[in-house]
From TrEMBL:
<feature type="binding site">
    <location>
        <position position="102"/>
    </location>
    <ligand>
        <name>sn-glycerol 3-phosphate</name>
    </ligand>
</feature>
<dbReference type="GO" id="GO:0005975">
    <property type="term" value="P:carbohydrate metabolic process"/>
</dbReference>
<dbReference type="InterPro" id="IPR008927">
    <property type="entry name" value="6-PGluconate_DH-like_C_sf"/>
</dbReference>
<feature type="active site" description="Proton acceptor">
    <location>
        <position position="185"/>
    </location>
</feature>
<keyword id="KW-0443">Lipid metabolism</keyword>
<keyword id="KW-0547">Nucleotide-binding</keyword>
<feature type="binding site">
    <location>
        <position position="134"/>
    </location>
    <ligand>
        <name>NADPH</name>
    </ligand>
</feature>
<keyword id="KW-1208">Phospholipid metabolism</keyword>
<feature type="binding site">
    <location>
        <position position="249"/>
    </location>
    <ligand>
        <name>NAD(+)</name>
    </ligand>
</feature>
<feature type="binding site">
    <location>
        <begin position="249"/>
        <end position="250"/>
    </location>
    <ligand>
        <name>substrate</name>
    </ligand>
</feature>
<dbReference type="GO" id="GO:0046168">
    <property type="term" value="P:glycerol-3-phosphate catabolic process"/>
</dbReference>
<dbReference type="GO" id="GO:0051287">
    <property type="term" value="F:NAD binding"/>
</dbReference>
<protein>
    <recommendedName>
        <fullName>Glycerol-3-phosphate dehydrogenase [NAD(P)+]</fullName>
        <ecNumber>1.1.1.94</ecNumber>
    </recommendedName>
</protein>
<dbReference type="Pfam" id="PF07479">
    <property type="entry name" value="NAD_Gly3P_dh_C"/>
</dbReference>
<keyword id="KW-0444">Lipid biosynthesis</keyword>
<feature type="binding site">
    <location>
        <position position="248"/>
    </location>
    <ligand>
        <name>sn-glycerol 3-phosphate</name>
    </ligand>
</feature>
<feature type="binding site">
    <location>
        <position position="273"/>
    </location>
    <ligand>
        <name>NADPH</name>
    </ligand>
</feature>
Length: 325
């Protein structure tokens, strides 16, 4: 691919920085930051990923771009509607837009692509999801992810063009499965963290991950997605990473909850997003709506609300009726 590809990355959080770094290897990157980029000129670093010295070729700006060959939207899910509405007014409709957040909008229960169907109706669009810690992508370590859109032709071409030397993209035509997996794995990772924080053991964590995967597969099918998506990068891949990786904010939030801290105490000490804490209520509404039992995600949500202790959740889950695996 020629280096003349102009790539806009909207959002200078950890994941925006990670994507900007990898895309600077195949294109000219403009990275939009909502606030003035701090001491960037002196240090070459941005506050959300201070370990990373930004390649000098990346243009960091607080002005939203008016043109690009592709734009990655990398803000938290709850901020996507506002920013994509603004972008729709200034970015030509021919520019493909890629949603990079993982979660559901709280008020509407919509996935990122569904939000953008409303706010950027005429742009070609896809969603990016997978086992992708921002810092590793920024460091150039090998990574793979799924790019999903309903149009096979579009997504295959986009995955080919947007693969970088360290970020290999696989195309999928199941945006529902990919987005549900991306949203749910954050909640499940909180549950995995709780089992470790509360000293329930590694057996318990492995059982939780595996049974949550089954829960997720049933929900994906009920929602019109493909259960095999759950066994791909956006599903089991991201679950493995976030349920075991200490670098996960959702997992570490779970560990702190398991140790007995309340959600409000934990959130008061953090400035970055843990999407699972924001999406849990909305995800747990999906089960009853689609007629699928989601006992593990429900237990995590009740723990987040302070309605259950880890021990009570353990007892409830172990006490469920016996069934075929
Ligand atoms: N950090 C990671 O390793 C990965 C994160 N993600 C997903 O990417 C999304 C963003 O995560 P991070 O970049 O890690 O979060 P972050 O907390 O590091 O940064 C979020 C960025 O969005 C900006 N922002 C927040 N509210 C905004 C608003 N109302 N309008 C405009 N900008 C706003 C913030 O200023 C900040 O720059 C999340 O959905 C997360 O699940 C996905 C893959 C990897
Ligand atoms: O989505 C991620 C890795 O794929 C990042 O996980 P956390 O948001 O839990 O840090």
């Amino acid at each position: 691919m020629s280096k003349s590809l102009n790539i806009a990355v909207i959002g200078a959080g950890a994941w925006g920085i990670g994507l900007a770094c990898t895309y600077s290897r195949i294109g000219n990157v403009t990275l939009w930051s909502r606030s003035e980029p701090g001491k960037l000129a002196e240090t070459g670093r941005l506050p959300r990923l201070p370990e990373i010295k930004l390649p000098a070729s990346i243009n960091v700006t607080t002005t939203l771009p008016r043109e690009a060959d592709v734009a990655f939207l990398v803000v938290p899910t709850q901020a996507l509607r506002t920013i994509s509405t603004t972008l729709n007014d200034i970015l030509p409709a021919s520019v493909p837009v890629i949603a990079c957040c993982k979660g559901l909008e709280k008020d509407t229960a919509l996935f990122p692509l569904e939000i953008m169907e409303q706010t950027m109706p005429h742009h070609p669009k896809a969603v990016l999801s997978g086992p992708n810690f921002a810092i590793e992508v920024a460091e150039g370590l090998p990574t793979a992810a799924t790019l999903a859109a309903s149009s096979r032709l579009f997504v295959q071409e986009a995955a080919r063009k947007l693969t970088t030397p360290n970020l290999r993209l696989y195309a999928s035509t199941d945006p529902i499965g990919v987005q549900l997996a991306g949203a749910a794995k954050n909640v499940i990772a909180i549950g995995a963290g709780i089992t470790i924080g509360a000293n329930l053991g590694e057996n318990a964590r492995a059982a939780l991950i595996t049974r949550a995967l089954a829960e997720l597969g049933r929900l994906v099918e009920a929602m019109g997605g493909q259960s095999r998506t759950i066994y791909g990068l956006a599903g089991v891949g991201d679950l493995i990473l976030t349920c075991t990786g200490a670098g996960s904010r959702n997992y570490s939030l779970g560990v702190a909850l398991g140790k007995g801290n309340s959600l409000s105490e934990i959130l008061a000490q953090r400035s970055t997003v843990a999407e699972g804490a924001l999406s849990a209520a909305t995800i747990c509404d999906l089960g009853p709506r689609y007629g699928v039992e989601t006992p593990i995600m429900d237990a995590v949500y009740r723990l987040l609300k302070g309605e259950l202790t880890p021990e009570q959740a353990r007892d409830e889950l172990l006490d469920r009726p016996s069934r075929l695996e």
